[in-house]
Write the structure tokens for this entry.
Amino acid sequence: MRKYATLPCLLAAVSLYSAQAQPKKTTTNISNALTTPPSRSVTLNPDTAVVTMHDVTIKGQKVPYKAIAGTQPVWDADGKAIAGIFYNYYERTDVKDRSTRPLVISFNGGPGTPSVWMQIAYTGPRLLNIDDEGYPVQHYGIRENPHSILDIADILYIDPANTGFSRVLEKDAPKEKFFGVNADIKYLAEWINTFVSRHNRWASPKYLIGESYGTTRVSGLALELQNAQWMYLNGVILVSPTELGISRNGPVDAALTLPYYAATAWYHKALSNDLQSKDLNAILPEVEQFTINELIPAISQGGFLDDQKRKAIAAKMAHYSGLSEKVILQHNLNVPAQFYWKELLRDKGYTVGRLDSRYKGIDRADAGESPDYNAELTSWLHAFTPAINIYLREELKFDTDLKYMMFGPVHPWDRNNDNTGENLRQAMAANPWLHVMIQSGYYDGACDYFNAKYSMWQLDPGGKLKDRLSWYGYRSGHMMYLRKDDLSTGNEDIRNFIRNSIPKPGQAAKY
């Protein structure tokens, strides 16, 4: 399960905002039926909404918007609420015709994490306080996000059951209804149907965006919404995608991480001068071609690979990875990622991060096969946890004694019958309007960039859909948007993807 990130993925740059810069926080009713405040209790009210009015300046333009922090029920077959799902919904208020206004529905991953990461670090109107490379700084807080996509699309962030403020309400509620690849997809599709109906968004162009395990979720949702809810999408955005149920066992699985190793070694200046002197984008294509044309065939021969050829392959792997030929040969050309995170900077006394190898950690001992902890995840939780609690409770006025769960109790998670990549392909084949964009960080070791490319290639083995599939790489990790430059570029790529995937007036959905 190496490619499944334990963290949803999201984070971005946020500084403390002054009292003068704070947005308006007027709580207003939208309807008697929909607006119910939460209670100061550790018991969740499954159907609530608190509305506040704000504005944000995006790309030099002032954008007024309404924020709804609320819960909406999940019902059983008898109409009884068995869970309350927490959400944040941002709607631009100076738009007269919402039928043409895109709606972006956003998930993070884990499984077991809420939508905090992308909400306050990537696409949302508010940004947490970190430095330009994504490291935490104090004071904790939030500020405006000048790169948010709220200028061109309304955004819904959903926290699945037992994440954030969402809760399964009934002790006896069947866990299999919520905690598994296909169960998760099924109940969330029903929930989205209800939300779209409540907020009159059936006419709007619709997009799903998921990060990490959220990419598994939205890939499955694309088909489930289409087949079971009769809701058709314009786009799916996969940020740091998982394997999506696409098989890559054996030599392919062993080889595909090498380009990521090369990127990590380049960042830490662990390569020889001939490579280190080149730009990252100049060396990666070379490593990718070696991986496909030489490394996979070599590993496929196993113990029958000629000794001279084995040593030549190990030498090239060492040249590209920053490791020694000796340790590569000791691993039979198959170096596990956990060992790589421990080994690359071992002589300097550091480990590198799993989700973002730019981050360095310090272990109790330099010896060992894997790092003691995930340096990047500790750093991110340091920044995100205070920021989201400040934001939801103080700015969005969701006043509750519930704990906001950054990682919730959702295990064991049933990963059986994960066909989400094939689900996405089927949805694209049946819907000529559906486009897919993939975003990857070069320094992500949990859902590495070359595995993401491989998934894209395997999504469409016949090549008939490739004009609707695109991939973008960024010089950061799992949460590529934490780096200031990639926050700007990544959002602009999403903005262009949305613009380009909306059909022209009168354009029919047909081949």
